[in-house]
Write a structure and sequence with these properties.
The complex is a heterodimer of chains A (about 120) and B (about 110).
Chain A lengths: L2 E5 L2 E3 L5 E8 L8 E6 L5 E7 L6 E3 L7 E6 L4 E6 L8 E8 L8 E3 L3 E5 L2
Parallel strand pairs in A: 2-11
Antiparallel strand pairs in A: 1-3, 3-8, 4-5, 4-9, 5-6, 7-8, 9-10, 9-11
Chain B lengths: L3 E4 L2 E4 L5 E7 L4 E2 L4 E2 L1 E6 L6 E5 L3 E2 L7 E6 L2 E6 L8 E7 L6 E2 L3 E5 L1
Parallel strand pairs in B: 2-13
Antiparallel strand pairs in B: 1-3, 3-10, 4-5, 6-7, 6-11, 7-8, 9-10, 11-12, 11-13
The chains are: A mainly beta (about 120), B mainly beta (about 110).
């Protein structure tokens, strides 16, 4: 059974950095692409980034390009999201999600999320 | 980017009655070489993360009750709950995974009438 546990959220000032982690279990982690998707308070779902199973390809939402970096450590079954130069509009629950493919083109199984609040 | 448009924004249905949610994509999400539409549906209950219900437009995820069904191809899709139960109160999202950026519909809130 797929189990994804996010951590690293919290309250941070605008312009600062935060790194989210997602520990995976219950499936062959190195065989699947992994995503980060966010949801601002009271809003809908917004895809943020994807990393291919081997970590050789990454894609980002335009508004986070150059600020966020997705990475993974297949030896630790963990995917990360390094978030730099945070903005108030980045405030959201961040979910990691397993793709049903080696890259980005699959349906998603979700973790429980971690809340990031960007505020002065 | 592929824009996903859901309708209605909300609906209230009596217990045991049918609920129908529509989703339209701004371009086809059908990939001819695989003969599949890259479309999924998720259910999100208050305070919870989204849960996969339907993938490839019409395939029910393991453990999902058979009152949930998905249909459609190309650009027009439908999620149907054949007999609404109290536990189905939630927001439902369609999602295209045909290409990046992955995009979601705005959500449909389903309530009991």
């Amino acid at each position: 059974q797929v189990h994804l546990v996010e951590s690293g959220g919290g309250v941070v000032q605008p312009g600062r950095s935060l790194r989210l982690s997602c520990a995976a279990s219950g499936f062959s982690f190195s065989a699947y692409g992994m995503h980060w998707v966010r949801q601002a308070p009271g809003k809908g779902l917004e895809w943020v980034a994807v990393i291919w199973k081997d970590g050789d390809k990454e894609f980002y939402l335009d508004s986070v390009k150059g600020r966020f970096t997705i990475s993974r450590d297949n030896s630790k079954n963990t995917v990360y999201l390094q978030m730099n130069s945070l903005r108030v509009e980045d405030t959201a629950v961040y979910y990691c999600a397993k793709s049903d493919s080696t890259g980005g083109s699959g349906s998603l199984i979700w973790g429980q999320g971690t809340l990031v609040i960007v505020s002065s | 980017d592929i824009v996903m448009t859901q309708s209605p924004d909300s609906l209230a249905v009596s217990l045991g009655e049918r609920a129908t949610i529509n989703c339209k994509s701004s371009q086809s999400v059908f990939y001819s070489s695989s003969n599949k539409s890259y479309l999924a549906w998720y259910q999100q209950k208050p305070g919870q993360s989204p849960k996969l219900l339907i993938y490839w437009a019409s395939m029910r995820e393991s453990g999902v009750p058979d009152r949930f069904s998905g249909s459609g191809s190309g650009t027009d899709f439908t999620l149907t709950v054949s007999s609404l139960q109290a536990e189905d109160v939630a927001v439902y999202y369609c999602h295209q995974y045909f290409n990046t950026p992955l995009t979601f519909g705005g959500g449909t809130k389903v309530e009991i009438k």
